[in-house]
Design a protein that fits this description.
The complex is a heterodimer of chains A (566) and B (364). With 566 residues, chain A is an alpha+beta fold. Chain A folds into 3 domains: 113 residues, Beta-Lactamase; 180 residues, 2-Layer Sandwich (Beta-Lactamase); 230 residues, 4-Layer Sandwich (Phosphatase 2c, domain 1), CATH 3.60.40.10. Chain A is 32% helix and 24% strand. Chain A has a 5-stranded antiparallel sheet, with helices on both faces. In chain A, strands 8-7-6-10-9 form a 5-stranded antiparallel sheet. In chain A, helix 4 runs antiparallel to helix 5. With 364 residues, chain B is of the alpha/beta class. In chain B, helix 13 packs across helix 16. The longest helix of chain B has 24 residues. Chain B is globular, with a radius of gyration of 22 Å. Chain B starts with a helix and ends in a 12-residue tail after the last helix. Classes of the chains: A alpha+beta (566), B alpha/beta (364).
């Protein structure tokens, strides 16, 4: 400290040194003494040799030996050492450190003799702003990830799983989702950070967690600081959660007018408690989870309703009755649909002597509206079943019933009454404006059944001409709708499948079981269409089995074998 | 304990029943085998599946008729159904392992392999939803939303369904359900399954069961992919162009062939239609090879077709003329031309060597 110091040209050299560097103002003029930023001059050896008024106000003073010198903060001394050890003139990035709980950026201007003028710039506010920005960006990123993950599923358990696992990842150490009760039981979904999600259904009393009963009833959330973490019941704590709970958030999941559930977030005592900002963020998270869960629940309910209503409209499963094979296959026009304007139905005779009635038809139009009318026709025909011995009468009554409804649609259909006699199958067929059924004989020849008649639901009077056919073993009668023959596609892309190809297909089906016949016809028509558009396509086959099953005693034997199997 | 000799004897008996169209004997043989103590899995995979395989190869070799092939397949399906619907239901059908979905790619009618996989998984303790042949992708996705399964097992036999399979795979993953792909369509060692981003691939039903038992992680549904994310080469639009101009391409190629071989003009309508169908198949497989960017799909199909044709005494070189005519029409598409060139080379090399490898399963 005893020798003269050369300061950079920017400032004037001080002639001598002092115990405490004197005010720079006098010799230096207005250059740095008046600078609004704190400025310090530190010599080669690290001694503070000059400082301006701003620095004087800022730097703390020591309290040794009566003289209270200004102290250079240790981070700046260290930076100074690093700088002076390097070659003079090396420019380094600005350094930062704290003085009196504020952050400063230090800019160095080195001089030739090794002293350095340090300019300190306060950037506390910028840093605070940047940190706030970063955390808000991070939150936006989290929320966007949460939204896309929740949006991907319409399944309630999967949605609950995604909610708790993301809550445990981004918001808390552990999370529990409590869904509204079903009866007296609640579904609880637990997650602990880094562990698989657990799901249980059990009876709980929501009033044992402060704010939970309220959250499940849609009341505003109880502030986290009100909730006593010591009083939590066991069912809240996920398996493997160690240590006492330190802080808790209970937040409602807003749903479609009714709460979709409540989310409980837990942190152990060793972690810091939830801040108010985190509580707000948890609410934003819960809002998204609530929307997703409500959508999933709505979808589930709607699907259940649709499935129930649709059950009556779906084509029935056909099977072998009294040694006659029946098989049907249905392909609606739209991939998203399950029903349409084509239909078939099946009423097995209750005893061997009684005829089985098969119906296949086509209502004008497509989609659900047409399907509703197919349901009416099927119901009406079911009611008319006792009259099925007389097809003309059945069609006349059906026509009358359709004319009195508000539907303006009409329908075409075929009725087939089937009865087995020894190894032959007798079929009475009547077409009401529908495509005549085809019969494939054992030798592969294909015949058209000569029946024709008026469609139903359009004219007050109708007439029809029925026909009878006999199927020998391995012979099949196929009922089909025009969706098959009018299917467009093929190798050239724009041809109709047509009756000629259908007959050719059938010719190859001689001797096949009924199931294989409908499968083959539907498959070739579908392949003909390729990726193109198509109408509803329905097929029903009635077959006399190629090989009559061996005697009943034999079949029982096979059943016994099956039963004895280990 | 099942002896190999027992299995091969059973196979022989079942084959005879099936090819005779004798459903009742076939079902009786299967029930009898269980009664003798044969494991159900062995019966399904080492007897019934092998018999079904033989149905395909015998048809390809023209040793059984189309009708016999259909009847045999129908009977095999009934045998499997009869086993599944036994009154006692088998010992391990509780579904304690969890729920899975088994289905075929949309447009895929070969449901037998998927059916076997479904039965094997049931035997191994899974609760299986079997959706059957050609599952429309919207139905598949709706089913996943409804049932939240651990995995989807997607079966495909014919490679031309790979683009549809790709859509199904990404759709399942987008709802967070992993996809295990299987079947011949997915190529040797599941090459195309991985190209299409499937989570797993299995060579057979046992492999599928093992993969499920080893636990499949759920894909991140937030990472929704576009087609070109998996297959960046599709950006060149060659696949799109070939698919969109399929009808025109077939018509033009048919005309070109008639100019080259005037004898074709004497063909009956039905013969012409068969030729058009052959060309359409070539275009479909060409498009698929463009889609997955792998010549193997195309050359494999051509070599297999050559074999089918020759088994029916049709000279396989006629395929080369077809490829030639297509090349004239697709001159502006370098990737396509390359595939056609590789196809021609494979066919010509085959003509010079007597040993032929197996091709894809295309029995219809």
């Amino acid at each position: 400290m005893g020798r003269a110091v050369c300061v950079p040209p920017l400032v004037c050299a001080s002639p001598s040194s002092f115990a405490d560097p004197r005010d720079a103002g006098v010799n230096v003029g207005a250059t740095w003494g008046d600078a609004p930023y704190p400025v310090l001059v530190i010599d080669r050896d690290g001694a503070l040799v000059g400082l301006n008024a701003a620095a004087r106000r800022l730097l703390p003073r020591g309290n040794g030996e009566g003289t209270r010198r200004h102290l250079v903060p240790s981070w700046l001394s260290a930076a100074h050492r690093r700088l002076t050890e390097r070659a003079a003139g090396t420019v380094t990035a600005p350094l930062t450190g704290e003085i009196d709980e504020r952050r400063y950026e230090a800019h160095a201007t080195p001089s030739e003799d090794g002293a350095v003028v340090w300019w300190l710039i306060d950037d506390t506010d910028r840093r605070v702003a940047e940190a706030a920005l970063y955390s808000s960006q991070e939150r936006v990123a989290v929320l966007s990830a949460v939204s896309s993950r929740l949006l991907s599923t319409l399944n309630v358990p999967r949605c609950a799983e995604a909610t708790v696992s993301m809550a445990a990842e981004h918001l808390a150490e552990a999370a529990v989702l409590v869904l509204p009760p079903q009866g007296r039981r609640h579904t609880l979904t637990h997650a602990r950070r880094g562990h698989p999600v657990q799901r249980v259904v059990r009876r709980i009393d929501p009033r044992t967690v402060q704010g939970l009963a309220e959250a499940l009833q849609g009341f505003p959330p109880v502030p986290a600081r009100w909730i006593d973490p010591d009083g939590l019941p066991d069912w809240v704590i996920p398996e493997g959660f160690t240590g006492p709970v330190g802080s808790v958030i209970v937040t409602p999941l807003p749903g479609h007018g009714v709460p979709a559930g409540a989310l409980i977030l837990l942190r152990s005592g060793t972690e810091r408690a939830f801040t108010e900002g985190e509580e707000v963020f948890a609410r934003l998270f819960a809002a998204r989870a609530g929307a997703a869960l409500s959508a999933a629940r709505l979808y589930t309910e709607q699907t259940a309703i649709t499935a129930t209503l649709m059950r009556e409209l779906l084509p029935p499963a056909l099977h072998t009755v009294d040694g006659v094979e029946y098989a049907g296959q249905y392909r609606p026009a739209g991939d998203e649909e399950r029903v349409g304007g084509d239909f078939y139905d099946f009423h097995p005779g209750s005893e061997s002597a009684q005829e089985t009635l098969v119906v296949l038809g086509d209502v004008a139009g497509k989609g659900l509206d047409a399907a509703v009318l197919t349901g009416k026709i099927r119901n009406t025909l079911h009611a008319l079943l006792p009259l099925a011995g007389n097809h003309d009468e059945v069609l006349r009554l059906l026509n009358g019933a359709l004319l009195t409804t508000q539907h303006t649609r009409f329908a075409t259909l075929v009725l087939a009454s089937v009865r087995r006699q020894d190894d032959r199958v007798h079929v009475r067929l009547t077409s009401a404006g529908h495509l005549p059924p085809l019969i494939v004989r054992r030798d592969g020849s294909v015949e058209e059944v000569p029946t024709r008649g008026t469609l139903v639901g359009a004219l007050p009077e109708i007439s029809s001409v029925g026909a009878e056919a006999v199927l020998g073993p391995g012979e099949t009668c196929l009922l089909y709708t025009d969706g098959i023959t009018e299917a467009r596609g093929g190798p050239l892309g724009d041809e109709m499948f047509g009756e000629r190809r259908l007959r050719r297909t059938l010719a190859e089906c001689a001797g096949l079981p009924a199931e294989a016949v409908v499968e083959r016809v539907q498959m070739l028509a579908a392949q003909w269409i390729g990726a193109g558009r198509h109408d509803d396509m329905a097929t029903v086959a009635v077959s006399a089995p190629a090989k009559v099953p061996p005697g009943s005693a034999d079949r029982e034997g096979a059943g016994e074998h099956g039963g004895r199997r280990k | 304990m099942t002896l190999p000799i027992q299995v091969s004897r059973l196979r022989e008996r079942l084959w005879r029943a099936v090819v005779d169209g004798d459903e009742y004997s076939a079902v009786r043989i299967a029930h009898g085998a269980l009664a003798e103590g044969i494991e159900e899995e062995t019966l399904l995979l080492d007897v019934i599946a092998r018999v079904q395989e033989k149905v395909g190869t015998e048809w390809a070799a023209d040793r059984i008729s189309v009708a016999q092939e259909h009847a045999a397949t129908a009977i095999n399906e009934r045998v499997v159904a009869a086993l599944a619907h036994r009154p006692d239901g088998g010992p391990y059908r509780q579904g304690h392992r969890g729920r899975v979905t088994v289905g075929c790619v949309d447009g895929e009618w070969h449901a037998f392999p998927a059916r076997l996989v479904a039965e094997i998984l049931r035997l191994r303790g899974w609760q299986v939803d079997y959706l059957g042949a050609q599952t429309p992708t919207p139905h598949l996705v709706a089913h996943l939303h409804r049932t939240n399964p651990r995995a989807v097992l997607l079966s495909g036999s014919i490679p031309t369904h790979l683009p549809t399979a790709h859509a199904a795979i990404t759709a399942c993953q987008a709802v967070g359900v992993p996809v295990l792909a299987g079947g011949r369509a997915f190529g040797p060692l599941g090459r195309y399954a991985f190209a299409l981003g499937a989570d797993r691939w299995a060579a057979d039903a046992r492999g599928a069961a093992a993969a499920l038992e080893a636990e499949l992680p759920h894909p991140d549904p937030a990472a929704v992919r576009h087609i070109v994310d998996d297959l960046p080469h599709l950006a060149d639009q060659e696949y799109t162009m070939v698919v969109q101009s399929r009808g025109t391409l077939v018509k033009q190629t048919l005309r070109d062939l008639e100019d080259r071989f005037p004898a074709l003009r004497e063909y009956s309508d039905e013969q012409r239609e068969r030729t058009a169908e052959d060309i359409a198949h070539i275009v479909d497989f060409l498009a698929t090879a463009l889609y997955v960017d792998d010549a193997e799909v195309f050359t494999g199909f051509l070599l297999w077709t050559a074999e089918i044709l020759e088994a029916r005494s049709v000279p396989a070189v006629s395929l080369v003329s077809g490829l030639d005519a297509l090349s004239d029409r697709l001159r502006d598409f370098p990737r396509t031309l390359n595939l056609l060139r590789e196809g021609t080379t494979a066919l010509l090399e085959r003509a010079h060597s007597p040993a032929h490898g197996p091709g894809p399963d295309l029995h219809v």
